[in-house]
Amino acid sequence: MIIFRLGRIRAPQGPGVVLLLPFIDHWQRVDLRTRAFNVPPCKLTSRDGAVISMGADVQFRVWDPVLSVLVVKDLVAATRMTAQNAMTKALGKKSLREIHAERLRIGEQLLLDINDMTKSWGLEVDRVELTMEAVLQPPRETPLGPPATVPPVPGLDGTAQQLAAHLLGNRSVPSCAPLPPADSVETVSEVEPAGAPHLARRTPSADELLAAVEPVLCEALVGQVGASFQVDIALPGGARSSYFIDLSSGSGRAGRGVPQGSPDVVLELSEKDLQDLVLGELRPLSAYMSGRLQVRGDLHLALKLEELFKAMKQRR
């Protein structure tokens, strides 16, 4: 127990019975046992251009309770942010192959780097274990940029392929219909001039993302979610646009504007974060915990939107 008597710190007391002076002493408990927290999976880019979702499990203990109280207000939050920044910096210097092969050694190096920053807080990290959630984008074949022809990516979920087809002007195939076989899809170089930019790399707009939502709406999904949402999108130019996803009755509806009546939940996020949610690269809980998703209303209902994104990912 750390005690402040009239604003001056005393030597640590306890464990056991500790006498306190009412209105004079202020105290704070410090747990000296080994504790643990996890760094939520975040999207990182490796040296060879691969995009991965990587998290970490961290074990730590307090060795100086006085420093841990005087120097840092929220010890776990500060250590988690330090670990996440160190992990991002270290993995950005490694290729995907090196990350797979040297995960233990990278964790040991992260342990030393984090301890260098937290030793002045009276805290020592005992273990760092990296956890790879998924490889979101394979590494580049050559360092010169994307190839002239881009064949369909194996394993790409149906929603992403529908959005790519939508951006390339292939509007004859409805998004609810099965996609053609991979060998029948033309490459970009066959349908546009060689000097034209690769349109599939453009970020889909909010209207295009909401158009991909409509085909998956159904009564079963309404039964799972049972709520209406207003989605306020922050556009790159600073403007804002509102959309609605009504999963409270019937087969559900989605479109531009605000829902009829008061929405159960109001969501605020950027257009890029909406794209990551729709394509399954970001989970609603992770977006909320990282501050990328602002929620007004029932958080439990807001997290039910993950059922919608799962349904979009399963649709082929």
Automatic annotation (TrEMBL):
Lineage, uppermost ranks: Eukaryota, Metazoa, Chordata, Craniata, Vertebrata
Similarity-based family: Belongs to the band 7/mec-2 family.
Protein name per the record: Stomatin like 1
Parts forming coiled coils: none
InterPro entries the UniProt entry points to: Band-7_stomatin-like, Band_7, Band_7/SPFH_dom_sf, SCP2_sterol-bd_dom, SCP2_sterol-bd_dom_sf, Stomatin_HflK_fam
Listed GO CC annotations: plasma membrane
Record-annotated Band domain positions: 1-150
SMART domains xref list: PHB
Annotated signal peptide: none
